[in-house]
Amino acid sequence: MKSRILLVLMFLLTVRVHAADVLAIRNVTVIDATGASPAPGMTVVFREGAIADIGEASEVKLPEGTAVVDGSGKFLIPGLWDMHIHLALINDPDWTRKITLPLLTANGIVGVRDTGGNLEELRRIQTDMASGVLPVLHIVTPGSMLDGPGEAFPGVVRLENEAAARAAVASLNEQKVDYVKVLSSLPREVFLAVADESRKRGLPLAGHISQGVTVAEISDAGQKCIEHLDGVLLGCSSSEDEIRKAIDEVLKQENFQALPGIRTRMLDTYDPEKAAGLFAKFVKNETWQAPTLTFLRVQASLADARESASKNLLYVPKAMREQWLETAEKRKVSDADRELATRRFRKNLELVAAMKKAGVGVMAGTDSDGDTPFLVPGFSLHDELGNLVEAGFTPMEALQSATIRGAEFLGQDKTRGTLQKGKAADAVLLDANPLDNIANTRSISAVILGGKLLSRKELDGILSAVEQSANPK
User: Fold this and answer.
1) pLDDT in tens, 177-228
2) Cβ-count burial of 104 within 10 angstroms (0-12 exposed, 13-18 middle, 19+ buried)?
């Protein structure tokens, strides 16, 4: 049964390889993600993996043999990117191959910034993509993540000192990773060595906030992206030094009952003037944010996350789904803790809005990895766009966070991220206007991946195969 499902899935994902060489979407409303107003009555021509032409339907001439799709009443946006996801973090290749990749494709996601895991498995995935076994998804990855001393964990390299830090960065460079990812337990001197060695080798640095280093110092050290808003709220506190010492004491004594009080003080001492200075530093240093509000929402309330993801849980393998549900059932939260968690999440929304207004780069990511409950790959990116609008983004700004902003961060904005002539032939055809309601990014009629069309019928076939794989008879 599993073999048959995989064969069906592979066929559906590669069925268009031998389709017409030229594809045109005719008479469609183009939302190009540049910030321009929607352009109705347009024709977009895809050829040899790029947008060959785009213009008013009456003016675009189609080559003989062009496969034409009527886009009347529909809306075309660039292909989406999830800019924080783990493709190979849990020790289950089937999760990535049979669940994650198909769900990404079915949700109009054409590329990802993988944020750490098993590099060997990722390379195998990329090889299978190149050979047509898997859909061609654009992937950038750091390979293994770097962290301080501690328990061994797959996909994490533990660093004891500065020499080990420099050797680890050198090794990652030899493995031709796209950037370096750090976690939160790196001692100060080890983080600074990682940052210095990464800079010397021309590898961008991204990740969490390391021990003994302020968020301002991390920005000054050249970390290009901060994940999950790590350290940002603390960096906006008028009592930052005092609270940092209290956090260090909690970690040293493992007195985690003190955390709610510390978090409350962090919220109570938020200083708008200090925040403005920090955000100006981010802009000057080009320090981006991947807030992963979907992930933070799970941390705030498993019950809310469960409700939001309920209709998509059928695509999650039964054993994993049951584990997620059991986790939600067992978590007991007091009214005070729930109130504090809600307050923290609302503040995170405010932080993201304030940083965007200040000019800080913000990109959409989910932290979907198979381990965090109720973050269903693909679907959770649409949730993230909704979270950004809730934070105060316009629908256009939210859409850009999953298109051109990610391309800018990666230095690929000349080749992808918007619907313009010469750019990558990746797009999503929608039945409704996402600028009217960002939830309309879910109304997918077709996905264009590398210039090849996956119709709604084929996307439904992909989802059906994933459901069967997740729920074997």
Assistant:
1) 999 999 999 999 999 999 999 999 999 999 999 888 999 999 999 999 999 9
2) buried
Closest Cα to residue 76, out of 435, 385, 458, 378?
Answer: 435
Written as one letter, the residue type at 306 is: R
Q: Are 264 and 337 in contact (CB under 8 A)?
A: no
Residue 177 and residue 157 in contact, taking contact as beta carbons nearer than 8 Å: no
Tokens 């469609």: give the residue: 28
As a whole number of Å, the end-to-end CA separation of the chain is: 8
Q: Compute φ and ψ for 427, nearest 5 degrees.
A: -155, 165
H helix runs in 151-239, sequence order: 162-174, 188-200, 215-220, 232-235
Beta strands in 86-130 (DSSP E): 109-114
CA distance 60 to 392: 38
| pLDDT digit string, tens, across residues 433-460 | 999 999 999 999 999 999 999 999 999 9
The token duo for 135 is: 């859909």
Q: CA-CA distance, 14 to 452, in Å (whole number)?
A: 9
Sign of CA dihedral 366, 372, 377, 378: negative
